[in-house]
Write a structure and sequence with these properties.
Largest sheet: none
Order of helices and strands: HHHHHHHH
Number of helices: 8
Low-confidence stretches: none
Oligomer: single chain
Radius of gyration: 18 Å
Strand content: under 5%
Helix content: over 70%
Shape: globular
Length: about 260
């Protein structure tokens, strides 16, 4: 029977599929680390209080990238090239979601609207990351090799999501509510489409590596399309709602290191 646990267990048990999974994850996290570091450096003067939190966000992402690389190294594996169609972070940027890399490579200070865009984009993508890590934590929190990494990354992603909620609510109270809601909706609708496409591409790659029969691959693809239909109809709304989180000031301190993992 197909299940999230059995599917990931297959990927985990095969060196080639595990290396691809970790390489895709490490690449995305490292890219997120760079983006946050550049945003922290370019924060406008009126939002300078955010800079340490953005820096912490980026440090966490860098740490996650190191953790995924360490998991490969532990099994004697080397990172593999990330197929362009599976590169979630770069595809989001290519489709205009978040802040353009050309802007981040410059030295011009960002605007408050840029910060709104950054936080809205992060609120949507961190929702996805938090849910995915919660799924892995549910099934692999006690795994001898993955458990500690899964628990640490999942906790960080929950912190990132809480931070986005709190800061967007602050900006909404400052008069940016309409821009926030519009940006959140645009990001969410684009993200669910890109996530579907990336999921299909990743599963196709995994299917070839693991030798899945055509019927199994077709069933998985149908499931991905079904999730997209639900998200397009109603599920996207969970990505745009805002509420004060239980974790307040979640990124207010220094990033936790993971020397034993990375």
């Amino acid at each position: 029977m197909l299940s999230a646990k059995s599917l990931f267990q297959e990927i985990l048990d095969n060196d080639e599929s595990f290396a691809l999974f970790c390489s895709i994850a490490a690449s995305g996290e490292s890219q997120g680390g760079w983006e946050n570091a550049r945003i922290a450096a370019l924060v406008p003067e009126s939002e300078r209080a955010l800079a340490p939190k953005i820096t912490r966000h980026g440090a966490d992402e860098d740490k996650h990238g190191r953790i995924f690389n360490a998991l490969m190294k532990k099994r004697g594996l080397e990172p593999v090239p990330v197929p362009p169609e599976t590169d979630y972070t770069m595809l989001l940027e290519k489709h205009g979601i978040g802040l353009a890399h050309e802007k981040l490579k410059g030295e011009e200070p960002l605007t408050v609207q840029d910060i709104v865009t950054y936080l809205a984009h992060s609120r949507v993508t961190e929702q996805r990351a938090s849910e995915e890590m919660e799924l892995l934590r549910k099934h692999f929190a006690d795994h001898p090799d993955l458990g500690r990494a899964v628990r640490m990354i999942s906790n960080d992603e929950d912190n990132h999501l809480a931070y986005c909620h709190e800061e967007l609510l602050r900006l909404a109270r400052a008069g940016h509510g309409r821009a926030i809601q519009q940006t959140l909706r645009e990001c969410a609708l684009a993200e669910i489409r890109i996530y579907r496409n990336v999921s299909l591409a990743v599963m196709a790659r995994m299917g070839r590596i693991l030798g899945w029969p055509r019927a199994k691959s077709a069933t998985l693809a149908a499931g991905i399309h079904a999730v997209y239909v639900w998200e397009r109809a109603a599920g996207w709304r969970r990505m745009v709602s805002l509420k004060m989180p239980e974790r307040r000031d979640a990124l207010g301190g220094p990033a936790n290191s993971a020397p034993e993992l990375a």
